[in-house]
Amino acid sequence: MSEEDVKVSMARLEERIRAAADALNVAQSELHRRLEMLNGEAARLREMQATYIPRETYDRGIEAIEKATRSTEIEVDRRLKLLENQSANDKGKQWVGGAIVLILAAAIATATSLVAR
Questions:
Q1: Where do the H-state alpha helices sit in the chain?
Q2: pTM, entire model
Q3: In a 3-state reduction of DSSP, which class is residue 117?
Q4: Long-range pairs for 108-116 at CB < 8 Å and ≥24 separation?
Q5: pLDDT tens digits in sequence order for the chain, 117 residues long
Q6: Cα Rg of the chain (Å, integer)
Q7: For 76-105, b where at least 16 C-beta lie within 10 A, e where not — what string?
Q8: What pLDDT sits at residue 4?
Q9: What confidence score (pLDDT) does residue 116 get?
Q10: How far apart, in whole angstroms, are the C-alpha atoms of residue 40 and residue 31?
Q11: Integer Cα distance of 77 and 117 in angstroms
Q12: Among candidates 87, 109, 107, which has minimal Cα distance to 99?
C-alpha cells in the first residue's frame, strides 16, 4: 500500500469517525428530548393523580349515600302509609256522615208525614 493509499484510507476513516460522532450526537439529542418529554408526562400524570380520591374514600361516600337513601325511602314509605290510612279514614267518615244525613232525612220526612196527618 502506498503512502497516498494510506492517507486516503485515513481520511475515509476519519470521515467515518466524524459521521459516527455526529450520528451519536444526534441520537443523544433525540434521546435527551424524549426523556424530557417523558419527565413532563410523568409530572402531568402526578398532577392528575393528585385530583383522584382514594377508593376507600369513594366507597365510604357511596355507602353513606346508599344508607341515607334507604332511610329516606323507609321514611317516605311510612309517611305514604299514614296518608293512605288518613285518606281511607276520611272516606269512611264521609260515607258514615252521608248515611246519617240520609237516615235523618228519612226520619224527618217520616215524622213530617206523620205530623201532617
A1: 3-50, 55-116
A2: 0.46
A3: coil
A4: none
A5: 788 888 889 999 999 999 999 999 999 999 999 888 888 888 888 888 888 899 999 999 999 999 999 999 999 999 999 999 999 999 999 999 999 999 999 999 999 988 887
A6: 49
A7: eeeeeeeeeeeeeeeeeeeeeeeeeeeeee
A8: 86
A9: 80
A10: 14
A11: 60
A12: 107
Q: Residue type for 63, please?
A: E
Which pLDDT score is estimated for 100? 95
Q: For residue 81, what is its C-alpha cell?
A: 302509609
The grid coordinates of residue 11 equal 481520511
**Stated length of the chain:** 117
CA angle 30, 36, 42 (to 5 degrees): 135
What are the Cα distances from residue 47, in Å, to 27, 56, 70, 100? 30, 20, 37, 79
